[in-house]
């Protein structure tokens, strides 16, 4: 009997004994390709010597100090690395231990910005349906996750509401061109601002490329420009959650670079520390920081492990390797290869409705019928079946979405490490395609 509790109270997965590069070895003697970097985390793969060395050096110097007294050496250096060149006007960084904590920090910073600028009535966050911003109550409230939200709905902060995501595969109407669809979504957001009261909204939050709930869904061109314009017009902040899609994953360092707009607050996490240490954070625009600095000077927020020295040392090493080895460019190149490889094998597959993504961030939407886009029955748990079938062949992929409460979409996600080679990309696509076939054959 295990005394360990994980998400599934009835099962404990294989014990991972060692991992290096893009492979993980478990206690049952199996070796598996980490095709999704866990949940799009292991951007450098495993056991990168430069990161291990940075962690070792920091542990020997200072493992932990509280930010009420000290800050560890690598913390300032990490902030400088990320925002020293002020990308998109983002000038400051704040580090926490996870993506959810980053989202909480972003929401509370937006609220405090409202207070410090004399707008105490701004207390509402608009998010999007089928988005995921984390599991803590504030983040869960801002998100629209169909599985994780419902049990806690009664205890979530009520000052949030949701508009439609940009989801062309299912929600763009027949005959509606991209510009008209983007306009329809912008009109819906504008209407939501009007419904809440435009001067009551403190922020709009969205993932530039939706990960865990919509399977690598980027917005159509012009969508984020329209969103930015609406936020600016009504004095609300734009929070972009790049926990999953940020720091190189989509082929640019920040996913927003491909949208031509920058956020007021950006949330980062997974690709920040690459899983070597638990770390997340926010990058904030100068005007937000300066308003608080000129006002109370204190962000009424904080966590015991904020700006953890070892986590920041690991993240700094990860970011330096990404920079020095030109891995963002590499992601763009390997990403195009992965796209081609997946579309070649699965582009006409009767049970793959859509293949979408950017960089090394790709998902397949699984359907019972490709022509009608009919989803699989929810009780089949198709994304979980594909995960198991693919794992049996030696590839870990990440099941996301699901068909729940009439909302459709079973997806499996691939997010291989940035160091994945050309041959390994082909192997990943082969295993993915074979895993989907096995899962379909195994249906009752
Ligand atoms: N935001 C996004 C976009 C995510 O994908 C996730 C996790 O998957 C989170 C926030 C929450 O991050 P964490 O699980 O580190 O708390």
UniProtKB/TrEMBL annotation:
InterPro entries: Aminotrans_3, PyrdxlP-dep_Trfase, PyrdxlP-dep_Trfase_major, PyrdxlP-dep_Trfase_small. SUPFAM superfamilies: PLP-dependent transferases. GO terms for molecular function: pyridoxal phosphate binding; transaminase activity. GO terms for cellular component: cytosol. Its cofactor is pyridoxal 5'-phosphate. The keyword Amino-acid biosynthesis applies. GO terms for biological process: L-arginine biosynthetic process. Belongs to the class-III pyridoxal-phosphate-dependent aminotransferase family. This is Adenosylmethionine-8-amino-7-oxononanoate aminotransferase. Keywords: Amino-acid biosynthesis, Aminotransferase, Arginine biosynthesis, Pyridoxal phosphate, Transferase.
């Amino acid at each position: 009997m295990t005394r360990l509790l994980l998400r599934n109270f009835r099962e404990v997965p294989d014990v991972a004994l060692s991992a290096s590069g893009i492979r993980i070895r478990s206690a049952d003697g199996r070796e598996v390709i980490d095709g999704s970097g866990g949940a799009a985390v292991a951007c450098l793969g495993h056991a990168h010597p430069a990161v291990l060395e940075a962690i070792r050096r920091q542990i020997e110097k200072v493992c932990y100090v509280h930010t009420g007294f000290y800050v560890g050496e690598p913390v300032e250096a990490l902030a400088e690395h990320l925002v020293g060149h002020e990308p998109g006007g983002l000038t400051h960084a704040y580090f926490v231990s996870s993506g959810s904590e980053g989202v909480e920090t972003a929401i509370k910073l937006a609220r405090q910005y409202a207070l410090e600028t004399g707008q105490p009535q701004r207390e509402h966050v608009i998010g999007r349906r089928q988005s995921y911003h984390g599991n803590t109550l504030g983040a869960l409230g801002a998100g629209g996750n169909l599985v994780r939200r419902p049990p806690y709905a009664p205890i979530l902060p009520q000052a949030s509401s949701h508009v439609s995501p940009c989801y062309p595969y299912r929600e763009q109407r027949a005959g509606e061109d991209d510009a008209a669809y983007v306009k329809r979504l912008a009109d819906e957001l504008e209407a939501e601002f009007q419904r809440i009261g435009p001067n009551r909204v403190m922020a709009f939050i969205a993932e530039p490329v939706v990960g865990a709930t919509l399977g690598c869904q980027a917005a159509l061109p012009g969508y984020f420009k329209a969103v930015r314009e609406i936020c600016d017009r009504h004095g609300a902040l734009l929070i972009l959650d790049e926990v999953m899609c940020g720091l190189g994953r989509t082929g640019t360092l920040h996913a927003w670079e491909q949208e031509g707009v920058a956020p007021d607050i950006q949330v980062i996490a997974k690709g920040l520390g690459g899983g070597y240490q638990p770390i997340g954070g926010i990058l904030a625009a100068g005007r937000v920081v300066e308003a608080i600095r000129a006002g109370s000077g204190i962000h009424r927020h904080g966590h015991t492990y904020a700006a953890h020295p070892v986590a920041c040392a690991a993240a700094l090493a990860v970011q330096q390797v990404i920079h020095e080895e030109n891995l963002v460019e590499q992601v763009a190149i390997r990403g195009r290869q992965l796209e081609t490889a997946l579309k070649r094998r699965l582009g006409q597959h009767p049970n793959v409705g859509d293949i979408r993504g950017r960089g090394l961030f790709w998902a397949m939407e699984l359907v019972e019928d490709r022509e009608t886009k009919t989803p699989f029955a929810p009780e089949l748990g198709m994304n979980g079946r594909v995960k198991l079938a693919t794992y049996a062949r030696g590839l870990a992929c990440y099941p996301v979405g699901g068909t729940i409460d009439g909302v459709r979409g079973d997806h499996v996600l691939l997010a291989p490490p940035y160091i994945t080679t050309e041959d390994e990309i082909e192997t990943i696509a082969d295993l993915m395609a074979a895993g989907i076939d096995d899962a379909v054959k195994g249906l009752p």
